């Protein structure tokens, strides 16, 4: 078997792109977990809603404005906001009542939500796959000197780290971020200091949800066609990422995501059908030898 | 008279009696059989969640192991029905041991995530052994063997007979699980659920007990899978899909995870709902999801705790003061 170097490099790039999208999801998962101690099973479903609402907003904008030029950019903003609002509603009406309960019940609640959201998406948009357009501006390929690479993927590769950086700065450099991090350390203490922790929780969950939604929008043109079971595999993959990277750790989430993306890219070159299973096996190995994950807090 | 009354208040006896009468009152024997099989699966699942506090998302793999083992043994070796079921349950227990050995290293939700991941790996592995499992087409050519081979064969082809065969296995399993949960080991399971660190510091090797719980649970889940295989005479990959794991969780929670018998009620209800609603409305899972959320939020004891509250009101007597545990 001979391998073409450019093919390998472009596969690795694909892995990187997929990894970085996963990283966005995993970061949302980690923020929610770090702050509220809840593993959000509905994260994949929120990603799904992100992709579908972006699809709808692209279609609607195209209809109103004729050409599809600006529609993707509107979707890129509108869909995460929509998903963030859903997250806010979910936290406010459902999750909020569950904080005193055992963690497993919070997990089960989000599991039930997954079912409900997935069915709702199927009812609203139908079960048939729908093709997700690539924005006009980002169609085609770019010559990187050593290879040709799709413009859109390159765009994701540049934009996503910027968004991650922005969220990180929000959490580390701003006053609000300090409150969130303090809440992670000691919820009751922050409450005693006169800060409305409940409201902070709502905001955190909604930020996490919005990140899942954004990942959904960004992934849309990469996947090409979207269907209602989209969230499942992504959910599993982002679980793997947070377990490998170490739950609650930001850098862990990103490093884990890139590692998973690359492993997936390499294995899909060698044995495509097994790539998912190998990623899970990676998780098992990490858990056996490094129970805290690669960069997790002890 | 008094002892008869006490005998009647035993939930196991009530369930046995109800399920013996049930097919004569309820005209859909096949559906009733299905209820029993999924009841067995849900009770087996609850050995972990309800008794040991371990949430498994991997029970579809165990159920599927049982079903595939039974199917393959029947198709390839025309195995005896009891031997086949024993082998299927044993195989599922072995898979449970393997998954448990690794998953048990993490606690709580991490454990759930791990079992979910292993369910996926298992699912994938099955797709790879196409000539053994039939791959996406499923395993065909499965038949329902007679209980006793030869001229004096005891056939279970007829639905009512098969129901009582399943009921026999079901009640035996239920008795076994009752014995397990009532034993000193069952108390250790509960101690782990309540406070693992304390159980550990008292001197119990929690890891060992958790794996044992997983293996028992896997054994009976595999048995349910084997029964389902000869009931439906077909095995497909969907038996191992993690969405079935999710469905089992829903059954257990709706019924109530606080007792051995609660999940049974949940399984019966979900199976019934599926049968009635799935034909009318393709998206009936939406309804199930909403009901599930309501139960998780407001009725954590499930239907069973409602039944218990009702029956204790009915059979109220001058109560002896119980010594607080």
Task: Tell me what the structure shows.
Chain A has helices at residues 5-36, 43-65, 71-93, 103-125, 151-173, 175-185, 187-192, 197-223, 230-245, 250-270, 275-289; strands at residues 130-131, 141-143, 148-150, 225-226. Chain A is mainly α and 298 residues long. In chain A, the strands form 2 sheets. A two-stranded antiparallel sheet of chain A has the order 1-4. The mean pLDDT of chain A is 85. Chain B is mainly α. Chain B is built from 15 helices and no strands.
Short summary of the structure?
The complex is a heterodimer of chains A (298) and B (325). Chain A is mainly α.
CATH class category of chain B: Mainly Alpha
How much of the sequence lies in strands of chain B comes to under 5%
CATH topology of chain B: ABC transporter involved in vitamin B12 uptake, BtuC
State the major sheet of chain A.
2 strands, antiparallel
- Helical fraction of chain B equals over 70%
Q: In DSSP terms, counting alpha (H) and pi (I) runs of 4 or more, how many helices of chain B?
A: 15
Oligomeric description of these chains: heterodimer
Q: What is the element string of chain A, with H for helices and E for strands?
A: HHHHEEEHHHHEHHH
Rg of chain A is 19 Å
- What share of the residues of chain A does DSSP label as strand, in percent? under 5%
Largest sheet of chain B: none
Radius of gyration of chain B: 20 Å
Q: What number of structural domains do the residues of chain B give? A: 1
Strand-helix topology:
The complex is a heterodimer of chains A (298) and B (325).
Chain A: H1 5-36, H2 43-65, H3 71-93, H4 103-125, E1 130-131, E2 141-143, E3 148-150, H5 151-173, H6 175-185, H7 187-192, H8 197-223, E4 225-226, H9 230-245, H10 250-270, H11 275-289
Antiparallel strand pairs in A: 1-4, 2-3
Chain B: H1 2-9, H2 11-25, H3 29-52, H4 59-77, H5 81-103, H6 108-128, H7 130-133, H8 159-182, H9 184-194, H10 196-202, H11 206-232, H12 242-255, H13 262-280, H14 284-298, H15 302-314
Helix pairs in contact in B: 2-8, 3-8, 3-9, 3-11, 3-12, 3-13, 4-5, 4-11, 5-6, 5-11, 8-9, 8-11, 9-10, 9-11, 12-13, 12-15, 13-15
